[in-house]
Amino acid sequence: MITKSAIALILLTFLTSAWSQTSKTLQDQYQLHIVRTGEAIRIDGRLDEQPWQQAESAENFWMSFPVDDERAPADIQTEVYFTYDDQYLYVGAICYGPDDYVIKSLKRDNLGFWEGDAFSILLDPVNERTNAFSFAINPANVQSDALVNGTTMRRGTGNFSGINDAWDNKWFSAVQTDTDRWTVEMAIPFRILRYKSNQTVWGLNFARGEPRSNSWHTWSPVPVQFISMDLGYTGTLIWDQPPPAVKTNISVIPYLSASSQNNPELGEPTSTGFSAGVDAKVAVTSSLNLDLTVNPDFSQVEVDQQVTNLTTFDVLFPERRLFFLENSDLFSDFGIPPMRPFFSRRIGLDEEGNTIPIQYGLRLSGNINKDLRIGLMNMQTKGFNDQPGNNYTSLALHRQMFKRSVIRGYFHNRQGTSEQSLRFDDYNRTAGLEFNFVTQDGSTRAFGGYGKSFSDHVSDRNNSFYNIGGGYDNRTISVYSNLAGVGDNYYADLGFIPTQEHYDAIKDTTYHLGFNHLFTRASYTYYPEKDGKIISHTWYFNHMRDWTSRASELIQNSFRINYNINWRNTSMFLVEMTQQLNQLLYPFNFADEPLPSGKYHYLTLGATYVTDQRKLFSALLGVSTGGFYNGKRNQYQLTLSYRKQPWGKFDLNFEQNNLRFPEDYGEVNLLLIGPRVEINFSNNLSWTTFLQYNTQDDNFNINSRFQWRYQPMSDIYLVYTDNYAVEYWGPKNRAVVLKVNYWLNL
Questions:
Q1: Which end of the chain is more exposed for a tag (fewer CB within 10 A), N or C?
Q2: CA distances, 442 to each of 353, 384, 463, 476, 539 (Å)
Q3: Would you give the distance in Å from CA 252 to the centre of its chain?
Q4: Angle at 413 between CA 411 and CA 415, to 5 degrees
Q5: How many angstroms separate the CA atoms of 227 and 155, rounded?
């Protein structure tokens, strides 16, 4: 009889063997040696200085997508060179290929950057496959940079949670274009990197996007199921001597702003005001950073892109404020989507997305050593609209285990404050531990976590949160499952757990209930022949079930099956079928009268087609039809996009949901229309206007933003925001803000 110990030993042996077969082999095979230069290098996009002629080259890239079988060589080639001096890491690259480039925008870190021609480098200074820096450029010298963590990101799932492109820093680049190539020069200051000066072996990879063939190429091969930035498949950068130690790294970013606001809806007169504040970045050590902010201003941040909410729960809107986005994975990756113990929008924003003034904040983040990461954040908000201020503290520790696995813990505290002191009878605290196991090749993962909350005037019973799950990915098969549970008395004032809150439309009351959540996903992807028009066929199956933790009453149960076909010309077609069983625990209103509590069973069918995204004109068309509770729903979606390369992008998003219920409950037609215009006068000067017409929220919003980057990382913003009621077409509120900031390195 096989004992539990024997089973554990067999499993451990299997997993250990999985670790040993990937990255060590790749890091032995793919090595680039870097040699110090004593000659000055001018960043002009021409590799004509002597150090480039003497530098070792990385070439012979491999295709990573759409095929990776037999390590297919890239259909266009790339050469990369490295050198350095006391201040900068220099990168030179020659990207061969025709000059009919695809450039979606001249805006830094723009959403369409990776859909066009692009070259990027991935630097892992600690070489532990848990965190890295990405620096990317396109033929128009548009920069994009990001922090990348060790999260396994499967291609095609839309999961890019491991990439944080909100991280912005000052580095230099230049590009020269010719008929058969484009040439890149980069100068990356050592001061913006986090590394130990005695570390002479760094993780390294390069990626090249080639939209004409809809392909991605990498220097060190990355399997087709993972995105090109996966940290499990890096080669190595080998230094001839330890890189220079960074002595001083302090950046100060002061700002001034002037604003004018008007609120006709509340009958308030026009008001004007001036504001000033400062951010600072201090390198405590070469791998540990302290960020400070005093009276921060986020008026330049774009408004949320509105959605039509057809659920009975809140919708998660992403964080857009830069201070909270940098190193956000340290705090926000706990739990499982959409259940997160920490959600930074709980700080400085109310439930409607309105600003609550922040007085000051600090964040300490980075590596204590190669295996231990720390995140410590403290923020203080002012009292606002008769609500008291709050002090928020978050602590997160990540301890690397094995190669890509981590054990981590968190503590979050919201403490009410008065003008003079803390209010000890007004608090909410959450704490927990999690373990995330990932094999070195990223194919197998398992995770589990347990946490508790503590609140004033709330029982300490049934106040826990747990999650457990795992998954497996290979070239064609992906499976994933998780189980989670939340107690009735678990409260996360700094988190986002929407399924806990149930609204009673008749009593106008919200009930807080514990629940259990089960989610399972499986997919199979088939890749046809290399040179065919079709890249892949994928079949997906999803199952989700939620039920209350005490009475085990069903909340929702859904089965979804879809088929997805992707063409080499970047077009896509999707068909799906969803079988849904929802139980309203309390009456809920979608139209005229609230639907009664009870079970509702219905089926929906849908299809989506996306045209060639490389074309100057592209479109998305979607339609779905079927039941909706005790009624019917028809949904129509249309997105039109026209690109005047490279300076202009014009989008129109349209969504209509027609909900028809039995006569007693009414009918409603929900419209969401969002035109967007982006004009780039140069790489440093842009104007963006975004309109949103939303009948569900009874709001028409205008958000127009002019941005001039007059110095590296220093900007002037002029922002106009206006809101109107759709129903009676009257003004709600409007504001004009002028803001200037300046990035100063000390």
A1: N
A2: 37, 46, 34, 14, 22
A3: 26
A4: 165
A5: 5
User: Domain limits at 94?
Assistant: 22-239
In a domain, 141, yes or no: yes
Query: Number of folded domains in the chain?
Result: 1
Which residues have a Cβ under 8 Å from the Cβ of 341 and sit 6 or more positions away? 334, 335, 410, 412, 430, 432, 451, 465, 492, 494, 495
**How far is 10 from 355, CA to CA, in rounded Å?**
55
What is the distance of C-alpha 373 from the center of its chain? 20
Q: State residue 119 phi and psi, 5-degree precision.
A: -130, 135
Q: pLDDT per residue over 372-407, tens digit each?
A: 999 999 999 998 877 889 999 999 999 988 888 999
CATH number at residue 76: 2.60.40.1190
Joined tokens for residue 359: 């007085």
Assign 3-class secondary structure to 586-612. CCECCCCCCECCEEEEEEEEEEEEECC
Give the CA distances from residue 367 to residues 6, 262, 284, 286, in Å, rounded to whole numbers and listed in that order: 37, 46, 11, 9
Q: Residue 71, SS3? A: helix
| Rounded CA separation 116/230 (Å) | 20
Euclidean distance between CA atoms 173 and 712, whole angstroms: 11
Is residue 52 helix, strand or coil? Answer: helix
Termini Cα distance of the chain: 69
**How many other CB atoms sit within 10 Å of the CB of residue 58?**
24
For residue 614, which of 564, 567, 655, 563 has the smallest C-alpha distance? Answer: 567
Chain segment 84-100, per-residue pLDDT in tens:
999 999 999 999 999 88
Helix/strand/coil for 69: helix
Q: Is residue 65 part of a domain?
A: yes
Alpha-carbon distance 136 to 228, whole Å?
A: 13
Q: What is the pLDDT of residue 18?
A: 41
Per-residue model confidence (pLDDT) at position 2: 41
Q: How far is CA 462 from the centre of its chain?
A: 32
Give the Cα separation of 127 and 29 in Å (integer). Answer: 15
Distance CA 677, CA 650 (A): 5
What pLDDT shows up at residue 156?
59
Report whether 416 contacts 393 (CB < 8 A): no
Both tokens of 307, joined, read 């959605």
Those residues of the chain that have pLDDT short of 70 are: 1-24, 68-72, 151-161, 420-421, 530
One-letter amino acid of 617: F
pTM of the predicted model, to two decimals? Answer: 0.87
- Position 5 scores a pLDDT of 43
Q: Is residue 80 part of a domain?
A: yes
